[in-house]
Amino acid sequence: MLRQLRETMAEPLASQERLDKIVNVIAENMRADVCSFYVLRDDGALELFATKGLDREAVHMTTLRLGEGLVGLIAAEAEPLSLENAPSHPGFAYRPETGEERYNAFLGVPVLRAGQTLGVLVVQNAERRHFGEDETEALLTTATILAEMIATSDFDNLIKPGSDIDLRRPRMFTGVSLTDGIALGTVVLHDPRVVVTNFIAEDVEQEKLRLDAALEKMRVGIDAMLDHGDMQSSTDHREILETYRMFAHDRGWVHRLTEAIENGLTAEAAVERVQNDTRARMLRQTDPYIRERLHDLDDLANRLLRMLTGDHQGIGRNLPDNAVIVARNMGPAELLEYDRTKLRGVVLEEGGTTSHVAIVARSLGLVAVGQADSIVSICETGDDIIVDGPAGTVHIRPTPDVEQTYIDKVRISARRRAHYAALKDKPSVTRDGVDITLLHNSGLVADLPMLEDTGAAGVGLFRTELQFMIASRLPRLAEQIDLYAEAMRLAGDRPIVFRLLDIGGDKVVPYLRSMAEENPAMGYRSIRLGLDRPGLLRTQVRALLMAARGRPLKILVPMVTETFEFQQTKLVIRREVERLKRSGDPVPVELEIGAMVEVPSLLFELDQLLPEADFVSIGSNDLVQFLTAADRANPRVSASYDPIALPRLRAIKLVVDAARRYGLPITMCGELAGRPTEALALMAIGMNRLSMGPASIGPIKELILNLELEPIKRSVAAAMSDGAESVTIRELLKDWIDRQNLPV
């Protein structure tokens, strides 16, 4: 049957003629009275596309809704269904135009690709009989071939206007906005799926040998990675590979692959067939653990396909112009490996607004959207894509109307950027005379030239850990000096605040071994790690002092939990200063050391900490995370808490008021500062220094220039007083935004 199908697919036939011949081949070989093929349309209806045995007039006339009848049930559940007496089944839906009432025995299987249901393939017999497992498996194998034919053939002459086959139709995904802007471009899958072109086996035994060899090679590769020195400690990376190894040795998985080959598929087609079935089942599960294992199985299947096909295409490939990377998830180092001159955007199935890949995307000026569920399995490299950053929406294979709409939006956006550029030299002062200092958050020297474009007063936060995260080994002293010196050169006369190394938690540095932690966000990270590994801390401090070459230097200490930690860090810095003096090297003409407030316990030690500090910065990302006990990287809980609700805003105001008492400059360095409504809340409680991504400077400056701040300050102060909780801070600010007609 498979050989006949291959010959039929190779013939120069029209789409309908080919389908008609295919159902005849299947019916003949399955000894069935009926073979019918239903396609899932864009509107969710299953349309009868071809039949042998049912009335011909029903073709393209009979439809069933998803979940309706036996065919609709198979499509909805993506599971085969075998019945001896189909009309007696409670889900049976009679369609008189088909004449199907005279058939009893029924076997239907889903036609799947990438785990998505494309249609349903059915065989029927008049006499009652039971279709066995072998026959079900044979029909599933046939459905695999049919799915590939649908995905690659031209069905335009069969499809009514306004409908399309599900796999290649335009799709829209709603996720979470990670950055602003709009990107029109071409999909590049970060981990591209291997395209299987050879489906039907010539020699079953040879295909089984190929599978065994590929499995062994894959297992050896996984074992080698686990034996690598970097993996000897229990890290997240090791746990992932351990999961891979468990699946790679799973007998049930290997048995299903072998069974698919025995039914006539090549080894690579068998992998795709089994993974299709697995993906279809697991996509219908709600358990997040099951869904996470689906990613593991997808990655493992893709790894095995690469072994079988020799396709080892990776990041080093050439990018098209206006490339948009689509991935399940990725680290900042992986994003930085791409050619930034051709990159326009990034779309992730995971990833929140405070994830580090989102922060790097903002630094690079990329449009980014996260939490676009299942987008990797729906799109292909080369598809047209539109990423709407502010709306958090992604359009795959957009229609001409949608594309034109976004082309118009891009033109408007370009005019808006020109408008913001015209504001760069204007002082950021409110209408009632309150001076607000606007600064950049940065971590790459590549985005420092944007200081000239935005007119920002300086860099309020330079994340030094990005250099460590993108390196394959610990950066040497000279390499660190070069980076910091270049950053200072690009900043020119503007101040730049260097935050000491903030790694650990979700900022993984693979070459630094660490023990597995149940809650890494509250574990061995940041200044705790630096004080525990004084050589690492001293080297970075020395690099910063030497890079300054006598110029003023600002150093920010992250994740301070108690005053003692800050004092210990200052002691390390002073010793390095004395060391430079003894060696005759220049020391900074002015050295300021600041503390980052992002741990709630520090709110109760402000009177001990602030006299020790030269300035204060607030890291809202971690502070809000710890105040709400909501993991900022977990979208299921992180979106449930308003960061400017009264409890969080009161905590931030404690720090603002304390800094004012001690006469210290205070800067907000978290993501809140770059969002207009949140920035307005911060200004209303007395925060006059805001550090944000470069793209946010223009919108926030325009807000400031149109703002009368004092009445909003009084209103927010009244709302924050005890018992005055009739409206939320957000609702209160929205009212003021409307009253003052503020641009947000």
Automatic annotation (TrEMBL):
EC numbers: 2.7.3.9
Catalytic activity: L-histidyl-[protein] + phosphoenolpyruvate = N(pros)-phospho-L-histidyl-[protein] + pyruvate
Compartment list: Cytoplasm
Ranges for domain GAF: 14-160
Cofactor(s) required, per the database record: Mg(2+)
Alphabetic keyword roster: Cytoplasm, Kinase, Magnesium, Metal-binding, Phosphotransferase system, Sugar transport, Transferase, Transport
Superkingdom of source: Bacteria
Family matches, as InterPro entries: GAF, GAF-like_dom_sf, PEP-util_enz_mobile_dom, PEP-utilizing_PTS_enzyme, PEP_util_C, Phosphohistidine_dom_sf, PTS_EI-like, PTS_EIN
Class of the enzyme per the UniProt entry, highest EC level: transferase
Family: Belongs to the PEP-utilizing enzyme family.
Protein name: phosphoenolpyruvate--protein phosphotransferase
Species of origin: Devosia nitrariae
